[in-house]
Specification:
The protein is an alpha/beta fold and 179 residues long. It is 34% helix and 21% strand. 18% of the residues are buried.
Amino acid sequence: TVARCLVYDPTAQAVFIDCQVSLSPHRLHQLLDRFQGERLGSGDKSFILKRLHCYQPTCFEELTRVLMRLWWFPLENLRLLVIDSIGTPLRAHSLTDFSQWQMAIRQTGLCLRRLAHRQALSIMTSNHLNAKGEPLLGDTWAQFIDRRVILRWRSGQRLCAIPNEKDANPYEISLPGIV
């Protein structure tokens, strides 16, 4: 999603907030290799990488600082904000009590909603499921979601489902996106 945004719009900037600290420069190059020849040609990837701003917060306070930086110092032509594993810095054990945890989730959700509105920004977050198959951030987070899709593996097949619907459909990740 991030690579597509930057490849297809040469003026766009994107922010990737990697809460699991798992994104590496090697992985970024792999993602861009998918576009080699199609839109990227054989050109230099640094033109695209200069427009991708990566952050790796490990706790709620660091995530808040990143979001506040985007609020006070907006990037020109910022089109996409992706937060991978948003539940990681918002896990209940990192905050002292349940009410503090819920307040942190609300604060983050409101901040993202305001950023999206203020900058006409698309925001995509991933949120893992707990052992019971429920969203890690629970019902408090659900009020901030416009669209929700569940992607999962079952019996060696990738399945995509919309919550509260019985059917799950197979999907593939291809050059155009998820199909």
